[in-house]
Design a protein that fits this description.
0% strand; mainly alpha
Length: 306
């Protein structure tokens, strides 16, 4: 779920490889990152088998923060400069707290397939916010494709809910906005520090909130631990929230943003496959068509911004 924007916003860390071997390994790492993120929604649904939505968000951030803190300490990474902390706090609020909480709440009533299609427009939202933040003037082609992608998702959402968005859709669109802001800021910070450190400091910065949310929610949302819930929680904490970013950024650094972005376009479609194979959901033809249209719009915006 969460890597789609990286190819749009983290161009500062892209370094092209000179050897075919490095290119192959970079492509493999980038593909692994995409596959890792594509399973985030199904894993979240599994986590909800034993955790409440607020508890799931808190525990997810808490575990990811502890893993990131150990990695930062082991690598002896110094504290970021003071001027970078506002951006890191935006990453923490959008990517570590806001997006996981809102998508978790949405997945209580929305299917993973429906959510994947709606969130599939995230790269477009990130690109728009990034353009606003940086003042970069994008082409008319870019804005046309971005607008078409957004309208396609809105039309799909309204059709599925018979004219009015559901509460789950409201959560998903809110998640889009906060996550896009976090990704845009993360892309800006990636020009000053390695990408994995951006997400690492983001989850560490969110630790106080994660601890507070976990402590307050546990009495109201008792945990009924099952094997499925444990696997889902372990995945969204270790992979979706942190580990997947490490693999994704390493792959991007090896093959560059343009090539990595083409791999990333497959992410919503892979999530749709997971929803059918592992979640026993029925995939409507409209969902598949909508995902393909959004994929095409993202491809156009990628080319228009190069």
């Amino acid at each position: 779920m969460t890597a789609q924007d990286s190819a749009t916003t983290s161009s500062a860390i892209a370094v092209h490889s000179d050897t075919p071997r490095d290119t192959r390994s970079g492509t493999l790492l980038a593909a692994l990152g995409v596959v890792s993120f594509s399973f985030s929604f199904p894993a979240t649904v599994w986590a909800l088998d034993g955790f409440g939505p607020w508890t799931s968000t808190g525990v997810r951030g808490l575990l990811a923060g502890l893993i990131a803190a150990v990695c930062l300490f082991a690598a002896r990474v110094p504290l970021p400069e003071r001027r970078h902390w506002p951006g890191l706090l935006t990453v923490a609020g959008g990517c570590v707290i806001g997006f996981p909480l809102l998508t978790t709440l949405a997945l209580q009533t929305s299917t993973t397939a429906h959510s994947a299609v709606v969130i599939g427009v995230l790269p477009l939202a990130t690109a728009v916010i990034s353009s606003v933040l940086t003042g970069r003037r994008s082409s008319r082609t870019f804005w046309t494709a971005a607008g078409l992608g957004a309208l396609t998702v809105i039309a799909f959402t309204l059709q599925q809910s018979r004219g009015l968005p559901t509460l789950g859709d409201v959560y998903l669109f809110g998640a889009l906005l906060v996550c896009a802001a976090g990704y845009a800021q993360g892309g800006r910070l990636a020009s000053h520090m390695p990408g994995w450190q951006v997400i690492a400091w983001g989850v560490v910065a969110a630790l106080p909130v994660s601890v507070l949310v976990t402590g307050l929610s546990l009495p109201w949302e008792p945990v009924h631990l099952t094997a499925k819930a444990a696997v889902g929680m372990a995945y969204i904490a270790a992979i979706s929230q942190f580990g997947g970013f490490v693999v994704w950024y390493r792959g991007m650094a090896a093959i560059g943003v343009p090539k990595a972005s083409q791999i990333q376009l497959a992410q919503p479609l892979i999530t749709l496959v997971w929803s059918v194979l592992l979640m026993d959901e029925q995939l409507s033809p409209l969902a598949a068509v909508t995902a393909l249209i959004v994929l095409g719009c993202i491809a156009v915006t990628q080319r228009a911004r190069d």
